[in-house]
Amino acid sequence: MYLLLRYSASVESRAQFTKQGKLPGNERDGWHGTRRECQLGNEGKTRFCTSITCSLCGIIKTSFDLARGFNGTGFGLGWEILGKALYTSSSSSKSDNYSYNTNWNTPLKAMLLNKVIAGKCYVAEKAEETLTGPPVGYDSARLPQAATVDDLAVYRNDAIRPSYLIMYDGN
C-alpha cells in the first residue's frame, strides 16, 4: 500500500485533485475480474495456492504486475483496447466477464475491488491497442463516457492495489 500512497502523493502534487473536491491522486475504486485456479475463497479455504498462473493468488500476494500480465502466464486475457495496461471497471458486471475458474467445478467466482490512482485521465476517441503508457501529461486512459466499455487503464504497477476479495455466485 505504501507504493500506492507514494504514487498518489506524486500525482496529487502535480494536479491538486483535492482542491477540485476529489480524492488525492484522483483515487477511484475499480473492479477487476480475473482467473482463479484454486479454491481460495471457497468455504474454509483461506490459503493462497502455489500456482504461478493463478492470477487471483498472484495479485493478492504481490499486487498487479504489468510484466506478468502480458507474458502468457499471468493476469491478462489479451484484451488490450488501450494497450498494455492494468484494467479496472466501475461496473462489477463488466468485470464479471473476466472472472472465471479454471480447475474447480464451483458456482463461486472471485472479483477484486481495487484502489486505483487515475490521476489526469486521457480520453481516447477510439481503441488504441498500441499504447504502452498514457500520452505525456496524463496518468491513465479510458474511452469516452458514451462508449460501451468503461474500463480505466493504468500503466504503472504502483497505480493500483487490491483492497477487497469479493466471492459471489456466478450463476
From TrEMBL:
<dbReference type="InterPro" id="IPR012317">
    <property type="entry name" value="Poly(ADP-ribose)pol_cat_dom"/>
</dbReference>
<feature type="domain" description="PARP catalytic">
    <location>
        <begin position="49"/>
        <end position="141"/>
    </location>
</feature>
<dbReference type="Pfam" id="PF00644">
    <property type="entry name" value="PARP"/>
</dbReference>
<dbReference type="GO" id="GO:0003950">
    <property type="term" value="F:NAD+ poly-ADP-ribosyltransferase activity"/>
</dbReference>
<protein>
    <recommendedName>
        <fullName>PARP catalytic domain-containing protein</fullName>
    </recommendedName>
</protein>
